[in-house]
Amino acid sequence: MSERPPPAAGGLLIAAGAMSGAAIGFLYGQATPGFLAGLAIGIVAAIVIWQVDSRRR
């Protein structure tokens, strides 16, 4: 049986994007839009990692 590499995880990117977006937004007095923008960027990055990982298999 062939050994498959473990799947890549993108959850860290979602959490890090949300937290960093909120922190950057807080500096500009717009924590909620910063959080949402960071969350969106994290989700996009996680989807990219998922697509690359699914093609690797």
TrEMBL record:
Keywords: Membrane, Methyltransferase, Transferase, Transmembrane, Transmembrane helix. One of its GO terms (molecular function) is methyltransferase activity. The keyword Transferase applies. The chain crosses the membrane at residues 7-28, 34-52. GO terms for biological process: methylation. This is Tetrahydromethanopterin S-methyltransferase subunit F. It comes from Sphingomonas jinjuensis.
